[in-house]
């Protein structure tokens, strides 16, 4: 791979940017992700995961099998917001305004 | 300045390289008078500071003395950006909507309280809210609004704090957990995965993990872990102008949504129930979001001191040990870095920190 080869198509991140993140100390896919946005786009690292793991393996001299994958989180593929709102009840979500006007001396739940 | 070789002896060791620890390391390094080590069990942004909407939020922080602290910090952001570089700080103005007319009276009480310290808040009518932010739900009854609020890119912020600190000679040791801390005489001895480090002063800035750090020094850190879950949409045309209590649109078009709180220890999973509640909040606030696609969820463990307010300053009865642990670290980091630098350099601070001392919890 050339330095300018795009590894993350969604966010247009190239090999050079991945290597720069590693020069700054990042050792895992997720740590590289937070510095470069590689893997944060619509495909959620489905395209770039293995190219980046190979770059990490080459850079660190570790076997590919030892390079962790990215942290996967729901919804894994695009889901309409309205599909999630159905049937949601209950109260773990607070109100910013509501909190400000409750007695400000305490903040316990 | 002649740089000493890494001999594992420092003036100050900052434990935790999140937004608070990295800000302290950076501000302390500005004078280039201290040998500083910034140490973290993981990598910057792997914890709380990398899993936040990163509001720089002031106006609804009560009581007013806490609002004032937040305001002072928010006001430092434009200058901080001149020093460390573009952290995408935007003073968008902040809207905290309410959906019940009866809350208007409470909103006016907030205005009165915060006016005491110079926080300027407007109470908006339904029409005024919708004029400012037309995408908000027509069910809104009103909102409080302040020009002081905004947001920042937390990834850029922490990365640039660390880079600036390194340029000033701060040494960093990442992926390196502190296993034990001992004090003998005036010197702290830190045993870590990557060897032993010594320092005259040690600062605990481990956020939710400060509990573990405290116990190494025999200090019961009065903090709770609170999980917050957030939804991220696909990039959308810019349509939200303000930071809304619960929702903001990033520069790249993604909308971040969430204001959940759960006490589940260090469990960082995303859970469908809270994600559904958050989606409901999204569409209750901004109905058009029903048609947006969700790309990702994330979750972070926030630290919440037991009374809700920051813990900043010396650890009582332990010379040379300091703590800086708080919720709202993004908002407060420029000020906390500045104050901790004053405290370590001069022994006193330009803002009285007595109220924020760990000592307030003793005997509780």
UniProtKB/TrEMBL annotation, chain A:
Span of domain BFD-like [2Fe-2S]-binding: 6-58
Domain of life, per lineage: Bacteria
Any Pfam family matching the protein: Fer2_BFD
Record keywords: Oxidoreductase
GO molecular function, one term: oxidoreductase activity
Stated name of the protein: (2Fe-2S)-binding protein
Organism: Oceanobacillus profundus
Lineage: Bacteria, Bacillati, Bacillota, Bacilli, Bacillales
């Amino acid at each position: 791979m050339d330095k300018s080869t795009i590894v993350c198509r969604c966010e247009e991140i190239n090999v050079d940017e991945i290597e720069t993140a590693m020069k700054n100390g990042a050792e895992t896919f997720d740590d590289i992700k937070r510095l470069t946005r590689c893997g944060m786009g619509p495909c959620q690292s489905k395209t770039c995961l293995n190219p980046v793991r190979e770059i990490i393996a080459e850079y660190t001299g570790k076997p590919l099998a030892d390079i962790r994958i990215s942290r996967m989180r729901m919804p894994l593929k695009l889901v309409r917001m309205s599909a999630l709102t159905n049937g949601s009840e209950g109260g773990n979500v607070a109100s910013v305004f509501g909190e400000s006007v409750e007695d400000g001396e305490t903040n316990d739940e | 300045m002649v740089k000493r070789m890494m001999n594992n002896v420092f003036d100050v060791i900052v434990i935790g390289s999140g937004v608070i620890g990295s800000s302290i390391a950076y501000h302390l390094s500005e004078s280039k008078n201290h040998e500083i080590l910034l140490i973290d069990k993981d990598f910057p942004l792997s914890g709380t500071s990398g899993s936040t909407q990163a509001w720089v939020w002031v106006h609804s922080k009560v009581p007013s003395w806490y609002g004032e602290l937040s305001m002072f910090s928010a006001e430092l952001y434009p200058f901080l950006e001149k020093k460390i570089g573009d952290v995408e700080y935007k003073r968008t103005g902040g809207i905290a909507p309410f959906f019940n007319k009866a809350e208007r009276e409470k909103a006016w009480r907030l205005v009165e309280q915060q006016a005491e310290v110079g926080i300027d808040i407007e109470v908006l009518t339904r029409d005024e809210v919708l004029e400012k932010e037309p995408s908000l739900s027509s069910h809104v009854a009103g909102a409080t609004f302040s020009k002081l609020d905004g947001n920042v890119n937390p990834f850029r912020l922490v990365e640039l704090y660390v880079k600036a600190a390194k340029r000033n000679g701060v040494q960093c040791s990442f992926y390196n957990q502190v296993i034990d801390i001992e004090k003998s005489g005036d010197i702290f001895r830190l045993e870590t995965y990557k060897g032993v480090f010594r320092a005259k002063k040690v600062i605990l800035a481990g956020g939710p993990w400060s509990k573990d750090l405290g116990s190494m020094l025999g200090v019961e850190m009065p903090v709770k872990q609170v999980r917050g879950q957030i939804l991220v949409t696909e990039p959308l045309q810019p349509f939200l102008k303000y930071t809304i209590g619960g929702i903001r649109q990033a520069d790249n078009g993604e909308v971040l949504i969430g204001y959940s709180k759960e006490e589940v220890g260090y469990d960082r999973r995303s859970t469908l129930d809270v994600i559904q509640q958050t989606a409901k909040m999204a569409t209750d606030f901004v109905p058009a979001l029903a048609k947006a696609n969700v790309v990702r969820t994330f979750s972070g463990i926030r630290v919440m001191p037991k009374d809700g307010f920051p813990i900043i300053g010396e650890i009582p009865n332990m010379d040379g040990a300091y703590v800086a642990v708080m919720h709202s670290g993004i908002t407060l980091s420029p000020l906390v870095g500045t104050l901790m630098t004053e405290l370590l350099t001069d022994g006193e601070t330009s803002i009285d920190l007595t109220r924020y001392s760990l000592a307030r919890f003793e005997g509780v």
